[in-house]
Design brief:
Structural class: alpha+beta
Number of domains: 1
Order of helices and strands: HEHEEEEEHEEE
CATH superfamily: Uncharacterised protein PF07273 family, DUF1439
CATH class: Alpha Beta
Helix content: 25-40%
Number of helices: 3
Number of strands: 9
Shape: elongated
CATH architecture: Super Roll
Strand order of the largest sheet: 2-3-4-5-6-7
CATH topology: Bactericidal permeability-increasing protein, domain 1
Strand content: 35-45%
């Protein structure tokens, strides 16, 4: 069988059409990476963060995020100020650090804290009242920051509308793997 030039072109086109889905899938984006700098910029845009507790209002400021790749967790540090009618005219301030996992909510394209654990809680006062307020706040601060958004995707990729197979925390950012 002798092939002419037009027959050869048809075969090339047919081969290209058959291989196109394979090539497309290998070139398709299979993960999204959020750098630590983007996380910090997003957090600085959402803070100060005001949360109402039963007894008072707590305002969190100056967020810092650390990526704990070995533990597959993040650490969120912030300053806080607490005041409210139940505290009289007293205002308390200090620092917190939460160690938390992450979760991704595909419908909203957001990365959130999941099951935060209080690692550090300080009160800038040594009075007896600060010990009482400290004991109370240690219990409610993790609940107040549970589900706190740490990043929102603006990208319209269809992949982001699905749950990732894995959220990988790396030293320089967070990777959503599909």
């Amino acid at each position: 069988m002798k092939l002419n030039a037009s027959g050869m072109n048809k075969r090339r086109w047919m081969l290209a059409l058959c291989l196109f889905p394979l090539i497309k899938n290998t070139l398709a984006q299979t993960d999204f990476f959020i750098t630590k700098q983007w996380l910090e910029l997003f957090l600085w845009g959402t803070f100060p963060l005001s949360k109402n507790a039963l007894i008072a209002q707590i305002i969190f400021t100056d967020p810092e995020i650390a990526l704990l790749a070995n533990e597959q967790r993040v650490e969120l540090k912030a300053h806080y100020v607490v005041n409210g009618p139940a505290l009289g005219k007293k205002t308390y301030a200090g620092k917190i650090a939460l160690n938390s996992g992450l979760q991704y909510k595909a419908s909203d394209r957001i990365v959130r804290l999941a099951q935060p654990q209080l690692e550090l809680f300080t009160v800038d006062s040594d009075s007896d009242a600060s010990q009482q307020i400290s004991a109370l706040l240690k219990k409610i601060v993790p609940a107040l920051l549970e589900q706190q958004i740490i990043y929102r995707f603006e990208n319209s990729s269809p992949l982001l509308g699905n749950a990732p197979k894995q959220i990988q925390i790396e030293n320089d950012g967070i990777r959503l793997q599909y």
